[in-house]
Each structure stands twice: as C-alpha cells, then as structure tokens.
Amino acid sequence: MRIALFLALLAIAVGYAAWKGGGPERVMAAIAVAMVGSDQILHIFVPMNFTTVDTGHLAIDLFGAGSTVALAMFAHRFWPMCIAVFHLVPLLAHMSRTFDMALHPAAYLTMQVATSWPVPAILILATWRHQHRLARGVSEPSWLNSLPRSIRTTAKP
C-alpha cells in the first residue's frame, strides 16, 4: 500500500513538473521517472534481497545521486541541493552494508528508501514556486550558465 501511495504522489509531482515546471523541475521529473522505471525493470529480473549489497539498487542510486548532484550544480535553484542530499543517503546504506554485513536488512532497506519520500513534495513545491515567480512577472534563469555575463565573471584584482 505504501508503495502505491508513493508512486501516486510521485506521478502527481512528475506530471505537475512536466506540465508547469521550468527546466530544472522537468529534469528532476525525468530523473525520477528513470529511477522508478529502472527499479521496476530491476524487480522483474532480480528479487529483492537486503541481506547482501544490492548491486542493482546501487547502480540506480549512483545514477540518482550523480544526476541530482549535477542538477544541483547547474540549476539556478536551491531545492536541487536538498534532493541531491536525499539521493546521497542511499549510497551510505550501500557502504554500510559493504563494511558491516551484520547490518539488519530492515535498516538497510530503510536507509535506501526513506529519503525518497520528501522528493515528490519538494518537486511539487519547487514547481509551484516557479509558477508563482512567473505569475509575479519575475524572470529568473533556469540554469547558472544562462546568467548575464557580468554576473558570471568575477572582478579581477
């Protein structure tokens, strides 16, 4: 039941971001779809096992962490940094499982999935804020490299 609830919340967030979001919100929606889609495909071929290092989910989490860190580095938004941190925590779960095989499987599972829950809410809020800025007539660039040259360059001493 909780998986269906999470997927429903994520579907709403992804749909709203794809429909009304700016560039960073749409990229995050694509990342989320890729991660969930990869997870569903993984479970077709590999049963869930939280007693050893889960290499399938490790690969998905590496993609999620890498892509959200890149998004945080290039987006002209604050919220991608929060989501990047949430995607780094599962990597700690995999490292913990690697170094401490006595880690309880429930703890390993919780470390992998618990930080996914805030992502839909943050994406919905980010998309709403983007729409709110547009409604106020505030023109804010989506990406850092789209800032005016005078802001991007630093003054030389």
Low-pLDDT stretches: none
The average pLDDT is: 88
N/C terminus separation: 60 Å
Number of helices: 7
Number of domain units: 1
Look at the helices and sheets and give the structural class. Answer: mainly alpha
Quick one: how many beta strands? 0
Largest sheet, strands/sense/barrel = none
Helical content, roughly? Answer: over 70%
**Cα-based radius of gyration, to the nearest Å:** 18 Å
The SSE string, one letter per element, is HHHHHHH
The gross shape turns out to be: elongated
Residue fraction in strands: under 5%
Organism: Sphingopyxis soli
Keywords: Membrane, Transmembrane, Transmembrane helix
Protein name: Rod shape-determining protein MreD
Transmembrane segments: 27-46, 58-86, 106-126
List the helices and strands and how they pair.
Blueprint lengths: L1 H19 L2 H23 L9 H20 L4 H21 L5 H9 L4 H18 L13 H4 L5
Protein name: Rod shape-determining protein MreD
Keywords: Membrane, Transmembrane, Transmembrane helix
Fold and architecture overview:
- The chain has 157 residues and is mostly helical.
- The chain has one domain (2-45, 53-152).
- 73% of the residues lie in helices and 0% in strands.
- It has helices spanning 2-20, 23-45, 55-74, 79-99, 105-113, 118-135, 149-152.
- Helix 4 (79-99) packs antiparallel against helix 5 (105-113).
- It comes from Sphingopyxis soli.
- The chain crosses the membrane at residues 27-46, 58-86, 106-126.
- Keywords: Membrane, Transmembrane, Transmembrane helix.
- This is Rod shape-determining protein MreD.
